[in-house]
Amino acid sequence: MTSVANLAIERDALVLKMSRLERLGALHVDVKVPTTAVASIEVAPDPWAEVRGVRAPGTGIPRIIMIGTTRGSFGRDFCVIRGRGPAVVVNLCEGPFQRWIVSATDALEVAANLGSALGL
Predict the structure, then answer these.
(1) Which of 2, 25, 39, 52 would bridge with 93, disulfide CB 3.0–4.6 Å?
(2) Are β-strands 75-82 and 99-103 bridged in parallel, bridged antiparallel, or unpaired?
(3) Any domain includes 1
């Protein structure tokens, strides 16, 4: 199962756009940060290894789906992970989240395109 969520640059912001069902599962609206808040972009072959902290709020079934916020001593991450495919990890230097972890079947291409557009 692939994620409908996608990462897009709109004006001077990076936006994580989610489907209506993903927003419902995350108990959150689409997430946005200024492009200057993006520290780096990586690809995680196993996004489940990137998940840290406790999910609150959101929806989660281990190794199946994780949509929403995870919290811990590190702060907060936002996840939209489905299945076992790769994910794009966006590391942030400001804003409410330290990282976004987003499943994408074409994660390498998405990360490369975003990195190039952001000058990373």
Answers:
(1) 39
(2) parallel
(3) no
